[in-house]
Amino acid sequence: MRAIGLMSGTSMDGIDAALIETDGETVSWLGSGLTLPYDAATRALLEGAMADARGVNARDDRPGRLAEAESRITTLHGEAVRALMETLRLTPSDIDVVGFHGQTVIHRPDARLTVQIGLGQALADDLSIPVVADFRAADVAVGGQGAPLVPVFHQALVRALELPAPVAVLNIGGVANVTVLEKDADPIACDTGPGNALIDDFMAERTGRPYDESGRAAAAGRVDEEPVKAVLAHPFFTAPPPKSLDRNEFKAFVAERLNLSGLSTEDGAATLTAVTARTIAALVPLLPRAPQSWIVAGGGARNPTLLTMLEAILGRPVRPAEAVGWSADALEAHAFGFLAVRSLRGLPLTFPTTTGIAAPLTGGVRFSPRLREM
Ligand SMILES: Nc1ncnc2c1ncn2[C@@H]1O[C@H](COP(=O)(O)OP(=O)(O)OP(=O)(O)O)[C@@H](O)[C@H]1O
Ligand SMILES: CC(=O)N[C@H]1[C@@H]2OC[C@@H](O2)[C@@H](O)[C@@H]1O[C@H](C)C(=O)O
C-alpha cells in the first residue's frame, strides 16, 4: 500500500508528513517527507490547549481551547498532505491511507487516559482518502502505556540492515524513546526521559528562540554534574521498561534539582543537555544486553553537542538515521504511515515488551471519506 504518515510531536514545532510504501510488515520504500511548521499563533494555541488539557478526565472532553486547537490542527494536517501530494505529483486516488497521529495533549496511562486531538472523520472527508487515527487508545484502554508505538516499525527497518546486535534506535524528540532489537524477539522499548523539551523550554525563556541551534549554547557551557545526578535519582530512571512519559512530566522536578535560575544560559543548556544524554544512557543497565549499534533520529539528531555527550557516555558510536538510509526528520511520519497499514490489516501495533500489555494488540480507528454532496 501507499500511505502518508502524519506526526505532530511533543515539540509542537509543526507537522511532519511523509510517504511510505509498505504491506505493514516490510518497507519497500521510504518516500519523501516535508514539514509544515506551526506559526506562532498556532503554537500558542497548542500550548494553551495543553494547559487546558490538565482538566481532562475523559477522552472526549474538550474544555477551554482544546476544541479550537483540534479543529485548527486538523485543517493544517489536510494542508500538509496536500502540499506533499503536490510536490510528488500525486492525487488522492494514489494514496491508500493516511495515518494521522494528532497532537498529544495529555498522557496519563496510569489513569487509562491519553488524548491525541485531531478529527479523523473531518480529515478523511477533506482529503477524500481513508484515515486511521487514535493509535494509542486501544492500548491504554487495556492498561498499556500507549507509547512508544514506533518500535514495530523500527523492527521492520532494522531487519533490512546488517549491524551488530542488539541494535538500539533512539528518537530524540520532545521526549526521548528507544527501541532495542535483537533477532526476531519482540522489540524492547520505552521512553527514556526528556529529549529536547526541557532544553527548548529553557532556551525559549532565556533567548526567545525555541531551541539550542546545533547545541551551540550547550557547547559553550559547563555541566554541573551534582544536580544531574540528583535528577537521575528519580525512580523513573531505574524502573525497567516498558514505561512512557507525558511531555511535561519532569519539568518541575528538574527545575527544582538544577536550580536553573542560578545558571548562565550556556551552563543551563549544557546541564540540561547532559540530563538528556545521561537519562538515555541510564536505560542500558536495565537491558538484557548492552546495544552494540546505536541509530539516532528526531530533531535531537541535529544537536552535535548532545550526540558527542551521548557517545562519550555510551562508549559506542551513534549513527545518524541518514547513515543507514532513513530520514531523521521524517522517521516518525513514516512510522505512522506504516502503523496505519498495519491497523488496516489488523496486525499488532503494541506488544508486552513495548507497552506492558498482556498480549500483542492492534489499534487505530479507521475513518472512510464520506461522499460530498454535489
Ligand atoms: N538544528 C537543530 N539544532 C538543535 N536542535 C534541533 C535542531 N533541529 C531540531 N532540533 C530539536 O528537535 C526538536 C524537534 O524534534 P522532533 O520534530 O523530532 O520532535 P517531535 O516529533 O515534536 O517530538 P516527539 O518525538 O517527542 O513527539 C526541536 O524542538 C529542537 O529541540
Ligand atoms: C504519548 C505520546 O504522544 N508520546 C510520544 C512522545 O514523543 C516521543 C515519545 O513521547 C513517544 O513515546 C511518543 O511518540 C512516538 C512517536 C511513539 O509513540 O513511538
From TrEMBL:
<keyword id="KW-0119">Carbohydrate metabolism</keyword>
<dbReference type="GO" id="GO:0009254">
    <property type="term" value="P:peptidoglycan turnover"/>
</dbReference>
<comment type="similarity">
    <text>Belongs to the anhydro-N-acetylmuramic acid kinase family.</text>
</comment>
<keyword id="KW-0547">Nucleotide-binding</keyword>
<dbReference type="GO" id="GO:0016773">
    <property type="term" value="F:phosphotransferase activity, alcohol group as acceptor"/>
</dbReference>
<comment type="pathway">
    <text>Amino-sugar metabolism; 1,6-anhydro-N-acetylmuramate degradation.</text>
</comment>
<dbReference type="Pfam" id="PF03702">
    <property type="entry name" value="AnmK"/>
</dbReference>
<dbReference type="GO" id="GO:0006040">
    <property type="term" value="P:amino sugar metabolic process"/>
</dbReference>
<comment type="pathway">
    <text>Cell wall biogenesis; peptidoglycan recycling.</text>
</comment>
<keyword id="KW-0808">Transferase</keyword>
<feature type="binding site">
    <location>
        <begin position="9"/>
        <end position="16"/>
    </location>
    <ligand>
        <name>ATP</name>
    </ligand>
</feature>
<dbReference type="GO" id="GO:0097175">
    <property type="term" value="P:1,6-anhydro-N-acetyl-beta-muramic acid catabolic process"/>
</dbReference>
<keyword id="KW-0067">ATP-binding</keyword>
<dbReference type="GO" id="GO:0005524">
    <property type="term" value="F:ATP binding"/>
</dbReference>
<dbReference type="InterPro" id="IPR005338">
    <property type="entry name" value="Anhydro_N_Ac-Mur_kinase"/>
</dbReference>
<dbReference type="GO" id="GO:0016301">
    <property type="term" value="F:kinase activity"/>
</dbReference>
<comment type="function">
    <text>Catalyzes the specific phosphorylation of 1,6-anhydro-N-acetylmuramic acid (anhMurNAc) with the simultaneous cleavage of the 1,6-anhydro ring, generating MurNAc-6-P. Is required for the utilization of anhMurNAc either imported from the medium or derived from its own cell wall murein, and thus plays a role in cell wall recycling.</text>
</comment>
<dbReference type="InterPro" id="IPR043129">
    <property type="entry name" value="ATPase_NBD"/>
</dbReference>
<keyword id="KW-0418">Kinase</keyword>
<protein>
    <recommendedName>
        <fullName>Anhydro-N-acetylmuramic acid kinase</fullName>
        <ecNumber>2.7.1.170</ecNumber>
    </recommendedName>
</protein>
